[in-house]
Amino acid sequence: MSISGGLPQQFNRAIDLSALAAKKTPPQDAISAGGSARRDVDENSLVKEIIPSSKQVPVILVVWSPRSEESQLLVQALEALHRKDNEATQRWSLAVLNADAQPAVAQALRVTTIPTVLAIIAEQVAPLFDSMIPPDQLEIVLNKVVELAAEQGVTGISNGVPNEQVIPEDPDLIIADQALEDNEFPAAITAFEKVLVRKPGDAEATQGLANAKLLLRTSLADPAAAQAAVLANPEDANAQALVADFEIFAGEADAALDRLIKFISSNQGAQREIARTHLLELFQNFAPTEPILIAARSALSKALF
């Protein structure tokens, strides 16, 4: 895996917050007794603390297993570098997640190899590498993460104080996020809409609103029934749209967008317009610069013209 060329897809609510189990999970045991250089995280602390903190400090997240000696060696190497790099200024923080204890979280992060190291910058996840690498190369990768974070406006914390003034989060965004966590999707929709009334075009609220609407739609439907409806009538745009919703929910964004683009390409009239409108709404679940969105917009233009 590589971080060259920028950061990949947004860690968005539609997939990562809803796909994780709603239950509260107990904290993991640390790999070693000592060492405050890192934070052992579970689902709750990852979502509530680690990801939000990445708006100020880039986070290096190691998904490990106690069954893997390579995992333990990698964590130890990262701890040593963390202590070295963060003596005066917190340039990056270190978090570790036990994949054996938190399989749903590992799956939501799309981890297939242990250990896997990811960077979280401004609530975006970027895969870094999935094997032990030499310490000198490890330091190069970490420096690149810090550089990428700075380009995103994430500049670290000096002496416990953010290097740049932190703008307080919009209270309605806080309400919306809590509503999403509580599976209160109509309340989340209302809160995001309030933000957009005050701040039209706000990127976070726009994406959050699309996520909340998708979660509401999928919570009111059955995926098996949705698939059956498509098989019974492939020319039903509403049925295709609902299956696309479930594909987004399951982390299969490529399949979802491709499904609707192909439908638009092969249909005309009202059914085509239903699919086009739904696809444009799904686009709002992604950050404007995400490669998947850029590719899908290009494919849609070809399908339409």
TrEMBL record:
Pfam families: TPR_20. InterPro entries: Thioredoxin-like_sf, TPR-like_helical_dom_sf. Gene3D superfamilies: Glutaredoxin (3.40.30.10), Tetratricopeptide repeat domain (1.25.40.10). This is Unannotated protein.
